[in-house]
Amino acid sequence: MDNNIVRIQELSIAVKELKQEMAKVIVGQEKVIDNVLTALFANGHILIEGVPGLAKTLMISSLAQSLSLSFSRIQFTPDLMPSDITGSDILVSNKQTGMQGFEYLKGPVFANIILADEINRTPPKTQSALLQAMQENTITSGNKTWRLEKPFIVMATQNPIEQEGTYPLPEAQLDRFMFYITIDYPTYEEEIMIVENTTGSLEPQISPHLGAQQIIALQKAIRDLPVSEHVLKYAVDLVRASRPNNPDTDPEIKRWVSWGAGPRASQYLIMGAKAVAALNGRLSPSEEDVRQVAPIVLKHRILVSFAAEAEGINSAEIVSRLLELRN
Would you kindly state where each structural domain of the chain is located, as residue ranges? Predict the structure, then answer.
């Protein structure tokens, strides 16, 4: 436990340093950056949605620069193939013997942080190439399996407009993402600063801080944090309250929801709450920490019914209603 106290103190300092580095290029978006850092130290993948020009890609690449980790950017396009992500066997010749043989050429997925840019622009067969990597930290090609180096975090972006010709992520793929984060437009003052900072000759330099082993140690420290029974039950009860077949579910929720969140949502609520507590220097999560991460954990795991669509109710509003009922 003493080790954990030291680690959590280290984490608080590291997070401040990372925020300072990212602030050199990202104006505002403090809440989004907090959520991204929470997912990083909770060892969870994230999906970021926002219209073009809101610095989604820049935010993730800046985070990668501020960490001593390997980084790959994959620009998803309609013609992208699974082997373009995972890698493939290529025929090579041995210069000394003249013999030919197949050698596995690793794809861009073999990195610590993966930026999957505009993931909804590529067909499902290519999107699914990330499934095994995200869930099992391995890649299989032919009869061989390669283990990916830890930490391994996929940070994907998608554009909510221009849906023609795109491929919405299926539920199985969405469920692999710990957080679904939405970026909104900047405030007037923030936009003034953005234009001022990006139209001059100054090019800010980001200094790397944490390395792979440090991040792994901090992730383990967060996982080792104790959780009280009432917080654990609160998270599970919140998730179960989203399921229309649960007898205790509110009648309004039953009418609005086709399918509720699964057990992975409960796991991510607790892991997210632990990370929030740790980032704030606390050694155990509270119900309020669960409530803080609930909107970005549950929003993409609740499928709304036709009745909800007819009334203009979306999943985010349903999550807000769930939190009101569990307050």
Answer: 1-78+111-197, 225-327
The pTM is what? 0.88
The two tokens of residue 68 are 């001593």
Query: What's the CATH code, domain 225-327?
Result: 1.10.8.80
List of residues 6+ apart from 189 with CB closer than 8 A? none
Work out the average pLDDT over 192-219. 82
Lowest mean pLDDT across 145-159, 202-216, 270-284 = 202-216
What pLDDT sits at residue 21? 80
Evaluate whether 54 touches 194 at the Cβ level (below 8 Å): no
Predicted pLDDT of residue 171 = 81
CATH number given to 1-78+111-197: 3.40.50.300
The pLDDT tens digits of the residues spanning 241-274 come to: 999 988 888 888 899 999 988 899 999 999 999 9
